[in-house]
Amino acid sequence: MRSPLFDTDSIFQSSQIDARIRGIYQKLGKTFENLSPTNDTVIERALEALELISHLHKDQVASESYDLFRVVVGTSAPGTHSPEKWRVSRLAIHGAYKGDGFAPQVKEHQVEAHQFKDTQYILAFLDQCFELATVKCQNQDEPIRNALCALVSDPAAIETLERFDPTKPSFVRGIQHAFHCDRPPHLHKAALLFLPLICDKWFNTRSPIMGSTQMRKFCMDWACAVDGVDKTPDVKVAILTVLLKMINSPRWCPHIVPRDWELLRDLTSLPDDFPPLLSCIDNPKLLNVIKSVDNPMAVAHWVATLWLKYAELTTDVRTQLEAVTMEIAQNERKQYFDTSQSRIGEYLSIIGSELKKAKEALVHYPTLSIDPAAIALKSKVGSLQRAAKALDAIKQGRSVTSP
Amino acid sequence: MSFQLLRIVASASLGNIPTGADAAFPQWNGPDPTVAYVQAILYSSLAASLLAAFMAMLGKQWLSRYAQVDMHGSIVDRSRHRQRKINGMTTWYFDFVMESLPLLLQAALLLLGYALSSYLFSMDKGASGVVIGFATFGLLFYFLITSAATFSYNCPFQTPFSLIIRSLIRLDDEHTRYLKRTGKWFRRNLFTKRRKSPGIKHDDYTGPPLANAGNPVGYIELDMEPPTLFKKDTDWDGYVLDSDCIAWMFKMSTDADVIMAIMKFVPEVVWHTDIRTTPLEKIYDTVVECLDRSPGHPIVIQKFRDKAYLSAKALLHLAIQRKCIGEELDTFKVIFDKHIPMSPLKDFDRDPDLTSTLGMIDCVFGNSGSMRWDDLSFTPTHHAWMGHILLYRAWYVLKEDKCTSLPSDIKQFILHSFRLEPPPPTPIIADCLFMITLLLEIPVHRDDLSTVDKR
Predict the structure, then answer these.
(1) Residues B191 and B231 in one domain
(2) Residue B440 sits in the same domain as residue B317
(3) How many domains, in total, are found in chain B?
(4) Model-level pTM?
(5) Would you call A45 and B453 a contact, using CB atoms and an 8 Å cutoff?
(6) What is the ipTM of this complex?
(7) What count of other Cβ atoms lies within 10 Å of the Cβ of residue B24?
(8) Which of A 6-25 lie inside 8 A of B, CB atoms?
(9) Looking at CA atoms only, how far is residue A254 from chain B in angstroms?
(10) B319: which residues sit within 8 A by CB, 6+ positions away?
């Protein structure tokens, strides 16, 4: 037999594959830079080639596709070639963000002395996709998903989005479309990860961005999306961020689907300085709102969360918390003989477990360490011990001594 | 007599002029000159006969060596060995030398007849007439059968002269085709030179650096002729030898194992333009033999599965390579006319390797153009082979058929390969990338398209 198929000395080393990919993308770049009506056949061939190569799962293809996307979105195509421009953009962004692994970093570039963020290009592209999906009823699931992934993977996206208005009707419609129940899970996941980037502007606006019915519908779609995706750590954080923002918004909180309140049980996995949580625990009206929710687990989980942050609570909130907990304890005393299986016992167990974790983490630092992490841990241990003491007092029917 | 003459000359030079009987010139007392002449011819006849006998003995030894069978190696190796011997015989004109033996005998007979006629003519004209008559009749007969055999290859009375004359004027179909091919080769070369003259553009080169700016050695453009598809340092003569082996084995054997060995061997060969004939139609018929056509749509007979797979691979490899270089278009037409779809309609994924090969045969001969690659999960070896075959098909479709896009079967294959998890081996990715390169008309290095390294 002649040379074996998988010979390592074969001329087809990875570097040569990479060179070939580079060559193909250079040619595509040159073709799409000039979308003139005179070279229609060349453009058709190039489109076909891009359609094929964009499916190759290689990091280099992702990077080259992203660069091509920048080139194409940045060009000003003649009117007749505008559909081609968006088609190329869709294929290029697919090549860049199709995989769950490697995602090319969104870049900055200099054009005529102005600093541009590619985020603006991606947002322009997303707008176009939303328009096609919501107005022209075209299937744009894949491009929307890819654009959302690009924004999520962009560390500069938050800064750019500050100057962007995500509450404009077309954009809101697009996001609603992405969360719609019949959309595929990979689009739901991208939308769930993206929503935290704009949730401040969505849930804390002076005037509502949508009507009450639409809010209810959106919350149901969001709940549907949450149910359908794998709860990886990044997804979990995104979900809780949005949930806390919704809870903290008087307009949105009533529309939260009851089963979504049970997501609060994951709050213990969040970092101590998680901003949305910190802003929620400072809200004195929240506990009463949650008490009125049609899901008993809502208040249970929220009280547990507040007990973990006992020392950081404002006096108002702390008083409310103690009152609610005492109420729970009294009710339980009437219902249960063995209080170890009560809600209070559960809170104590959660605090005990968190205390144990904090102490174990603290062991790795010297006693007199001035490391900020060690200081934070010591503070957390102190806070939890005080919470445990207060909770124990409530359990035994005594009044809690204020700190 | 010479001594007598010398003695007269010596005496005269010494002043003793010989007289009388001594002065008389000696008289010839040997045989008659006619007899000597006839004897010389007869000896020549004898020498020719003996030489023929001597060479016949040597020839027997040579043939004995040729007939020795080397039992080492595979069928293909043995066939190559045999083919080398037969090629040596052709190169060294063994048949010509062997054919000269009867010629020597015929010459000896001619000389004998001439000598006898000449001798008897001097003795008795009447008696010599009988011999001359027979000799003339023989010569005339020989002339007639030589002429008949020269003008008709099917004439059974072939003589060495008729074969020599035929080989000199090359009248058979094979040689007519050879002359046509030679003319075609000249025309093509001239045409290529004219087209290349403005200079090759190489702005888009992305591969290794060029040998010099004006003459990018090693790079090819799609405008160039199909033979550049093959690697430059390919062992062309070796493939000619291999193709001869295959043709001979096909001719000499109907044994199932031999047929399987041939089919396995066909994809090993690069069927380039210098290979004059190929067993394309025979291989097609072999594939058809493995199919049961009674249920309406052909299905593969299970006991012939391996034969069907190997022959289908051989057919696809050979057909695509020959189509690619524009050879044997007549044979293609014949197969097009009699082709019936071969790929199964149901249980598509039962035997993915065979199904995909038969499906591609349908695409090539039936222009069906659709393949459900995503339903198939073939072996990596077959996947790589198929990728390489489709690279040739892409070349053909884009270059020869002047299509502006790849056919659906190739596009689906590329997408199927690119989407695979885990990704397929590097050679498959390389082939798919080359297909895209061809589509974009990017100049490629001829080594990139080497068949040797990717099989």
Answers:
(1) no
(2) yes
(3) 4
(4) 0.66
(5) no
(6) 0.74
(7) 11
(8) 6-7, 10-14, 16-17, 19-24
(9) 44
(10) B280, B332, B335, B361, B364, B365
